[in-house]
Amino acid sequence: MSALNDTPVDTLSFEAARDELVKVVAELEQGSPTLEHSLALWERGEALAARCEEWLLGAKRRLDAARAAASDTETPGGQS
């Protein structure tokens, strides 16, 4: 069974991309029957890793924005 999936990477959630990446890495570690299959796994793994990083950077931006908004609404010393 191959870890290769034909679902477009850019449609995957963080969790789906992460789970598939784990499977791809495991299959690469076991060794593939052909060089071509290994290359396809590697390319898919690279795309999945980039997708995970994209999700994590987006989450960081959202947290930074929420923190900035929270600090903007605080008033120093409780003054109005």
| Beta-strand content estimate | under 5%
Beta strand count: 0
Helix-strand topology string: HH
- Counting structural domains, the number is 1
CATH topology: Helix Hairpins
End-to-end Cα distance, whole Å, is: 65 Å
The CATH class:
Mainly Alpha
Q: Structural class of the secondary structure composition?
A: mainly alpha
Biggest β-sheet strands, sense, barrel = none
Overall body shape: rod-shaped
Estimate percent helicity. Answer: over 70%
Q: Average pLDDT value?
A: 90
CATH architecture: Orthogonal Bundle
Report the total helices: 2
Estimated radius of gyration: 20 Å
Uncertain runs with pLDDT below 50, 5 residues or more?
none
Short description:
This protein has about 80 residues and is mostly helical. It has one domain (about 10-75): Orthogonal Bundle (Helix Hairpins), CATH 1.10.287.
List keywords for this structure.
80 residues; mainly alpha; Helix Hairpins; 2 helices; rod-shaped
Question: Care to describe what's here?
Answer:
The chain is an all-alpha fold and 80 residues long. Helix content is 70%, strand content 0%. The protein has one domain (10-73): Orthogonal Bundle (Helix Hairpins). The chain contains 2 helices and no strands. The longest helix is centred in the last third of the chain and has 39 residues, at 35-73. It is rod-shaped and about 65 Å long. The relative contact order is 0.14. The mean pLDDT is 90.
